[in-house]
Amino acid sequence: MNQVNLAGNLIRLRHEKNVTQEQLADFLGITKASVSKWENQQSMPDILLLPRLAVFFDVTIDTLIGYEPQLSKEQIQKIYQELALAFANCSWDEVMQKCREKVHNYYSCYPFLLQICVLWFNHHMIPKEQEKQQSALKEIEKLCEHIIQNCSMVNICNDAISIKTMVQLQMGKAAEVVETLENVVDPMRMSNQNDLILIQAYEMLGDSKKARSCTQIMMYMHLLSLIGGAIHYLSLEIKNLPSCQETIKRVEGLLEIYKLEKLNPNITAQFYYQSALVFVFHGKMEEGLVSLKKYVTTVESMLWQEQFKLHGDAYFDCLEEWIEQLDLGAAPPRNRKTVTESFIKSLDHPLLAGLKDNSEFQILKKSLSQNKGGNDHE
């Protein structure tokens, strides 16, 4: 938030209206010396005079004092990236305090508050102390509730509900999550057909460009949901090797067909990682190493991209414009350094302990540790 700039605004507004200090003083029933002190920042007007000042210059009180309670999308993106970079390079407590100050300054800018929730959720695992992690989750939950209770924008509230339930899941509040989402995500609800209905409406209006773009976005998001669901399914079915093997075979086909290793390397890497855990769990070390090699290769190719951001491809050629319109644009939710460190830590999973003396596994760990994601110019 900009600092209150009443003095500068008074001078500017007087000059724009060609009004002298004496004329302004006469209108307010005060002395010229008082106006002079305001403009020289020696004193501030009585709060009861602010409405009369605003009326005189035909501006709002916010404009008069230079207060901007709302942020633009570009400003939100800039602040988010600055704070994400700070989380990667500064102390946790220091950055959290900066975040809280921003929250206090923009407590009614709900799109910004939502992105602070996203920022905190994506970085809450940074501190080693469980107490600090849990404290961050509680702050997110509280801030989400503030958004849900006070924001009039349905899409912002829906996103806040999603973040809140993810936080509650992390905190072990499964019953609260079920209560909130059980009916919302019911696959039999007609609202699940809304995207197809919208596409058909665009077609009916002759807007083929929007129909095509919306269709690509729907296909892309459903594809990511399918892969994400398969990753969770592998975790859920980890004891059932035949089921996991069939899931892995089918998903690998999708990854190849849709070239997801380049289109969305992050979710591809997650899939290879979970596949490795399944194989190692069943003592299939060779298969596990094959999946881990794919995992590390995908991670390294992602981190070494000159532009570390979301993108489309030759098939999904309508995604770029949509991605740029996202709340954070094409930028990743976490800084490259933070992402790299999380990938390195992933190889310390307890299930992978049986590979710690394996030379190929050690090479993979060393490779990922030495490749810090290239040059980060952020």
Short account of what is shown:
By secondary structure, the chain is an all-alpha fold. It has helices spanning 6-17, 21-28, 32-39, 50-57, 61-65, 73-89, 92-105, 110-123, 130-150, 154-170, 174-181, 194-204, 208-236, 241-257, 260-263, 265-281, 285-303, 319-324, 336-346, 359-370. It has three domains: 6-65, lambda repressor-like DNA-binding domains (434 Repressor (Amino-terminal Domain), Orthogonal Bundle), CATH 1.10.260; 84-181; 190-370, no CATH class.
List the helices and strands and how they pair.
Layout (H helix, E strand, L loop, with lengths): L5 H12 L3 H8 L3 H8 L10 H8 L3 H5 L7 H17 L2 H14 L4 H14 L6 H21 L3 H17 L3 H8 L12 H11 L3 H29 L4 H17 L2 H4 L1 H17 L3 H19 L15 H6 L11 H11 L12 H12 L8
Written account of the structure:
This protein has 378 residues and is mainly α. The protein has three domains: 6-65, 434 Repressor (Amino-terminal Domain) (Orthogonal Bundle), CATH 1.10.260.40; 84-181; 190-370, no CATH class. The protein contains 20 helices and no strands. It has helices at residues 6-17, 21-28, 32-39, 50-57, 61-65, 73-89, 92-105, 110-123, 130-150, 154-170, 174-181, 194-204, 208-236, 241-257, 260-263, 265-281, 285-303, 319-324, 336-346, 359-370. Helix 14 (241-257) packs antiparallel against helix 16. It is elongated and about 90 Å long. The protein starts with 5 loop residues before the first helix and ends in an 8-residue tail after the last helix. Residues 373-378 have low confidence and may be disordered.
Task: Sum up the structure in keywords.
378 residues, elongated, 434 Repressor (Amino-terminal Domain), single chain, 3 domains, 20 helices, mainly alpha, 0% strand
